[in-house]
Amino acid sequence: MSLLPSNATRYERALEKTCARSFSLPVLVNALRHSQTCPVQVLPWLAYEWSVDEWNEEWSEEQKRQVTARAIAVHKKKGTRGAVEDAINALGYNINTIEWWEQTPNAVAGTYELEITADGRGVSEEVVNSLLNVVERTKNTRSHMSKLSVTGAVSGEWYAGACVMTGEMVAIEPLMPEAVETSGCYNMNCGYTIYETVG
Q1: Best label site of 50, 110, 188, 194, fewest CB within 10 Å?
Q2: Residue 169 in contact with residue 183, Cβ under 8 Å?
Q3: Per-residue pLDDT averaged across 169-181, rounded?
C-alpha cells in the first residue's frame, strides 16, 4: 500500500521502494543504546555520545564496556574522590586514594596520593599515562597529586614438594662382631619453577 498520491512521479515511487527496504532492516535501537548489548563496532560511538573522557582502542572489550557503562555515573559526581575511584575501577584496576588530611602527619593541604594495583597485567608507560589522564579529567581542579604508586600483583598457583629417602644397609656374616655399626645416606631434594609473563 502506498501513501503517495496518484500523480506521484517515477522518481518518488522509486524513492518510496528504497525507503521501504531501509526501514525494514533489523536495527534494534535498544541494543545500540546499552553498553552491554551494543555491538563492539558501534561501542566507540556510544562512548562518544556518553562523553567518555578517556578511550583507548587497545583496551579489552570488557574494559570498553565497563568504561562506557560507568560514564554517566562518573559525570554525575565528576570532581570528587568517588568519580576518580569509579573511573579507575571501570578500567579494571583497584585504587586506594589517600587525601592530605588522612595522612600521618598531615600532608600539604589540597594534595593526595594514589595507590593503583594492576592485578595480573603488565604495567607499561602507556598504562600509567592512560591512568594519569583518567585521574586528571575526573578529579577536582584544586587538588594535586603528590604521589602515585602503581603496583602489579600477580596471583596464581604454585606447587612445592619434598621427598625424603632414608635407608640402611645391613650385611649378615657368619660371625657377629661385638659392635654393629650402621651408616646411611640422607638425601633431601627440592626444585621449583617460576614462569613469568611480561607484557
Answers
A1: 194
A2: yes
A3: 62
